[in-house]
């Protein structure tokens, strides 16, 4: 392949711009905000699950408390009804009177036991509600922090994308100065090796950092200036300049 030396040198400008684009892409992929968002999202998902579990437990305890309080009310109503019968003097039979007094005493003990159950449930519910409040606050705090980090990420993305657009515009201008066949070769090599062209500097390929043999240097010296030469080691296009040491 042949190309004017000036066109070949433009490959170095193109390679520099491509390296800049690669660096920008790497910056975009490795922003510290991305790792932070992933960490916060993981923690947020875990806490959100804990909130649901805590709310479920608190709801179950609320229903359990309501039922227990209903049981207390039921026993209290029965005890009050029996006490009224006893106080009214309607029960005259000693046997029935003893039975009624025994039932009232039994209901009193039952009510006391049920009230203890209600108190125990209330304590558990209070702890569950506190857990819900704590976890909800933690969830909201994590969500707010993630939102802040996402804003920082978006700002960084915008800056990188702006710079990338500017570099892309410059690349388009440089690529327009390069013959189509040479540009196609460069693009193919760049896809394979990451860098499609490198300067021959002081007898060394700056693409693979390999020093050329004397025989190879002599071969390149004998090659016409418009001939496109390749590094024998890495197969990239070697661009000759006054610093090539030829």
Automatic annotation (TrEMBL):
The keyword Coiled coil applies. It comes from the Bacteria. Keywords: Coiled coil. PANTHER family: PHOSPHOLIPASE C-BETA-2-RELATED, SCAVENGER RECEPTOR CLASS A MEMBER 3. Residues 14-194 form the CT398-like coiled coil hairpin domain. Gene3D superfamilies: 1.10.287.1490. Pfam families: CT398_CC, Zn_ribbon_9. Residues 63-87 have a biased composition (Basic and acidic residues). This is Putative nucleic acid-binding Zn-ribbon protein. Residues 97-152 form a coiled coil. Residues 63-97 are annotated as: Disordered. It comes from Streptosporangium becharense.
């Amino acid at each position: 392949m042949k190309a004017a030396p000036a066109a070949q040198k433009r490959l170095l400008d193109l390679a520099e711009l491509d390296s800049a684009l690669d660096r920008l892409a790497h910056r975009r992929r490795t922003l510290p905000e991305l790792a932070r968002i992933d960490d916060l999202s993981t923690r947020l998902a875990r806490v959100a699950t804990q909130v649901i579990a805590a709310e479920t437990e608190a709801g179950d305890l609320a229903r359990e408390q309501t039922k227990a309080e209903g049981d207390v009310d039921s026993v209290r109503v029965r005890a009050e009804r029996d006490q009224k019968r006893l106080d009214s003097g309607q029960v005259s039979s000693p046997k029935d009177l003893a039975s009624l007094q025994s039932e009232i005493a039994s209901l009193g003990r039952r009510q006391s036991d049920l009230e203890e159950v209600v108190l125990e449930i209330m304590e558990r519910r209070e702890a569950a509600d506190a857990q819900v409040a704590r976890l909800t606050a933690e969830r909201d705090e994590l969500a707010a922090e993630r939102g802040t980090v996402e804003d920082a990420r978006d700002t960084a993305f915008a800056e990188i994308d702006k710079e990338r657009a500017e570099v892309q515009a410059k690349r388009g201008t440089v690529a327009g100065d390069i013959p189509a066949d040479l540009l196609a070769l460069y693009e193919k090599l760049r896809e394979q090796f990451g860098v499609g062209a490198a300067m021959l500097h002081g007898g060394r390929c700056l693409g693979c950092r390999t020093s050329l043999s004397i025989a190879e240097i002599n071969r390149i010296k004998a090659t016409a200036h418009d001939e496109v030469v390749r590094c024998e080691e890495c197969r990239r296009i070697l661009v000759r300049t006054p610093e090539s040491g030829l």
